[in-house]
Specification:
2 copies of one chain form a homodimer.
Chain A: E1 3-8, H1 19-30, E2 35-40, E3 58-61, E4 64-67, H2 69-79, H3 90-119, H4 124-138, H5 142-147, H6 149-159, H7 161-169, H8 180-195, H9 206-220, H10 230-239
Chain lengths: 241, 241
Amino acid sequence: MTLRLYDLAGAQPERRFSPYCWRIRLALAHKNIATETIPWRFTEKAEIAASGQTLVPVLVDGDRWISGSWTIANYLEDTFPDSPSLFGGVSGRGLTRFYSNSADSLVSAIFPFVAFDILQHVADKDREYYRASREKRAGKTLETLVADRHARLPAFRAILAPLRLTLKAQPFLGGERPLYADYAVFGPFQWARCISPFPLLEEDDPVRLWRDRLLDCFDGLARAAPAYDTEVNVTFADQHK
Amino acid sequence: MTLRLYDLAGAQPERRFSPYCWRIRLALAHKNIATETIPWRFTEKAEIAASGQTLVPVLVDGDRWISGSWTIANYLEDTFPDSPSLFGGVSGRGLTRFYSNSADSLVSAIFPFVAFDILQHVADKDREYYRASREKRAGKTLETLVADRHARLPAFRAILAPLRLTLKAQPFLGGERPLYADYAVFGPFQWARCISPFPLLEEDDPVRLWRDRLLDCFDGLARAAPAYDTEVNVTFADQHK
């Protein structure tokens, strides 16, 4: 039976932009698991009520509803033990949790750069929910939140130093081949790429080059999604002046 | 033949306080490798000249001189394949490099809290070298560097969030048992603990509890070293008023 994944989408159903869902899309591809993705909007809480919570990703496997990216990744590893390992073994699973948690912090670090751009892409029915919930959490308007993003860019790039040094020395966080640790950390960058023209990473940054290697994985799965890239940025920026 | 490790020491030869050497001491214990540690001071560059550089840890195995904690860890893993793995396999080795680099950033984050306390412990002949080299790097005096450390403490503790979440969910970074990833990140905390009474971590912080679990490993190897702990802090602080 084909699995189903509820996947956050924008006004365009093909624009998928959850950092947490992207992790799982790549994890499913890594394990060669055929999955139907269902475009889901922030306000469609009723559709995933069976999962017992209100956020995506939600994976549906027969009558099992699994939520939370770390829980889903572990479910896939345990349920499909004959597919390539997401973690690289028992020790690898332990070592991967910190990546997952670090990537969550990365989402928080990137949000003040892309918060307003996201608003341009969410479905009409989600706009008010998105703005109200995010402004409440941030304690300021989306416009104010991103206003000084250019000034904050050097500090953001500086916190990527350990990632940068690592990816200068080896092609993937998992070593020669990507593992779930890669997908977990890739998620926030792909999220930003999917909804914002803002150039978070310099083109020759080893983090950017690693991101691009992951865009090429699984026949370009992540690259095929509607997103911004350097060339496109200019056009988009010009269009939105 | 017993290996030798040049290990940074203070005025007291037993006070070992390099975050990078501590990683290797625990790695050697993990692999059950008998090693003689040689107390070394910052200015004893000539003693490790055969390593081709000027910093510890330096491991001497017969006529091989190996320097750099990551290089040494890999050397131990490859040279002693029958001892317990430091990385948890091939994937684990890939996954561990980011921990090593993250821990190096942690050293930089902790330094402005303990920079002046270190001065109280370095050997007399190292004092001028230590102060001059560190003040040049920081662009300010050691006293100025640490002056606002109480105000900076909440921000420091906040950056530990991914580590804290991870160690709330599992006993070690490597999962159920410690791996080199643990030793790499433990190093900076043990360094601070060995030379400063400043309480970087709250007593019930999962990061602190994990640190304490590592103090107990290998028959309390890291706990046996001269250091400060909560009880001692008060005394030391009072003594230095």
